[in-house]
Design goal:
Helices cover 1% and strands 54% of the residues. A hairpin with a 4-residue loop joins β2 (47-55) and β3. It has one helix and 23 strands. By secondary structure, the protein is mainly beta.
Length: 366
């Protein structure tokens, strides 16, 4: 058929299955391939989050950027029909250019609401995260492969009259690349959710850049504290990656909420215990502006027609009820073994979580 001809990538010996590069191996509507970047200053004045995703079985490509500065969150989101050129990472005013794979990327947005032109440079090799699997009953709802990386960013960010000069000395950049199958709105609601309700979910995703090393911590726990993800790895150039055992977090929440104010993560084992101190600098809920569940104004992978662009400004002094049921990304200052580093403390805790003393979805810190 004329609409299923070879695409330019089919010229290269990169195929993994006997299909055109136009297609993915699974027919699952929830197939996805996307990225997220965090760029933030070390004083907590600005936190930029941006990403781009492709949903090949839905024919959608979309992207977003949010900037938290003070009590204001600026957001730009764009969506379009997926074209043939998968190496063109651009949607509306948002663009990602891979200048040097796994090393250097250019991030741009040309919009009156929010604009930036940044060069993101890796400081350490990319690190595989644990293979991520999640089921509801017998239905595989999530299977993702991800790598994470930390580095620096340089350039400029502008938003409604404010301008930030981004320097490698005073700003940090982290990123995550993932692909596989992940729930997209419209799938597996109704009976599946009713028969297998989620009692509780507790999540920590924490990439940290120090001057001479990179630390990645990730945990996912069910209501009773059972872990389905667990990893703490230290990366040092010239050394084998070091596994730091079973991380244990002590999180201090703002009274009456589940918003973390600071945390201590214990790393290692009885022979070599280390303490990672976490000081929260700025916070940006991914359900507000960035399109992550349970956002009610736009979510990733949803069809908005060709050439859709949307701009929002959120007053973060006004309560954002959905933020309490989604993951929040916090820029943070970290201390480990006398070293100071910077990174992201991504955290979400919903429903019951016995180790934290939360008894249900309405339960908050005293």
């Amino acid at each position: 058929m004329a609409d299923d001809r070879p695409v330019p990538l089919d010229e290269y010996p990169v195929h993994q299955v006997p299909l055109s590069m136009r297609h993915v191996a699974t027919g699952d509507r929830n197939a996805y391939d996307r990225c997220i970047f965090h760029v933030f200053d070390h004083a907590g004045h600005a936190l930029l989050i941006l990403g781009l995703g492709v949903y090949p079985n839905l024919g959608v490509i979309d992207a977003y950027a949010t900037l938290r500065t003070g009590d204001t969150l600026h957001a730009v989101r764009a969506s379009d029909a997926l074209g043939e050129d998968r190496m063109r990472l651009a949607v509306g005013p948002l663009r990602i250019e891979v200048a040097e794979p796994l090393r250097r990327l250019r991030l741009t947005c040309a919009d009156e609401q929010l604009s930036y032109d940044l060069t993101w440079t890796a400081a350490f090799p990319a690190l595989w995260e644990p293979h991520h699997l999640q089921r509801r009953g017998d239905r595989l709802t999530l299977e993702g492969r991800r790598f994470v990386q930390a580095g620096t960013a340089e350039g400029v960010i502008r938003a409604r009259g404010a301008e930030f000069r981004v320097t490698a000395q005073d700003w940090t950049g982290t990123r995550d690349r993932s692909w596989g199958v992940r729930p997209i709105p419209g799938e597996d609601g109704g009976p599946l959710a009713e028969e297998h309700p989620t009692e509780g979910f507790h999540w920590i995703w924490c990439p940290v850049r120090f001057e001479d090393r990179f630390l990645m911590v990730i945990t996912q726990e069910d209501a009773d504290g059972h872990r389905s993800l667990n990893d703490a790895t230290l990366v040092r150039p010239g050394h084998r990656d070091r596994q730091l055992g079973w991380p244990q977090a002590e999180i201090t929440y703002r009274p009456g909420t589940r918003h973390p104010e600071h945390a201590i993560i214990h790393l290692g084992d009885a022979r070599s215990s280390q303490r990672l101190d976490v000081e929260i600098l700025a916070s940006s809920p991914l359900a507000v502006g960035a399109g992550y569940p349970p956002a009610d104004d736009w979510q990733h992978g949803t069809w908005r027609g060709p050439g859709w662009t949307d701009r929002r400004t959120y007053d973060m002094t006004v309560p954002q009820p959905l933020a309490a049921y989604g993951v929040t990304d916090h820029s943070a200052r970290f201390r480990l073994d006398g070293r100071t580093g910077h990174g992201i403390f991504e955290h979400g805790s919903f429903g019951r979580h016995d180790p934290s003393g939360f008894t249900g979805f309405d339960s908050v810190a005293p």
